Amino acid sequence: MITSTKNPIKKRQRIVLVGIPASPGYAMGHCHTISNREVTVVEETLPNERLAQEEQLFLKAINNTIKDIVQIKQITVNRLGIDEGRIFDAHLMILKDPTLVNGILDQIKKENKNAQWAVHTQITQLISTFESHKSALMRDRAMDLKDLYHRLMGALEDSGPVISEDEIGNGVILVGHELNPSTLISLKKDQVIAFATDSGGRTSHVSILARSMEIPAVSGLRNVSAMVQPEDSIIVDGTGGMIIINPNDDDIRKYEEKLEVFKRQQRELFTMRQLEPMTRDGKYITLHANIELTIEADKVLDYGASGIGLYRSEFLFFRKGLPSFEEQVQAYQYILNALTPNSVTIRTLDAGGDKLVADISISNEANPFMGWRSIRVCLDHEDLFKEQLKALITANTQGNLRILLPMISSMQELRRSKAHIETCKKELEAKGIFSPKIELGIMIEVPAAVVLVDKFAKEVDFFSIGTNDLIQFTLAVDRTNELISSMFQPHHPAVLNMIHKTVMAAHREGIPVAVCGEMSADPMSTLLLVGLGVDELSMTPWSIMECKKIIRSINYEDVRETAHNVLKMDDTESINAYLKKKYSQTITDLGISSFISSGDLDGDSNPS
Ligand code: PEP
Ligand code: MG
Question: From the CA of 587, how far away is ligand 2's center (Å)?
Answer without folding.
Answer: 28
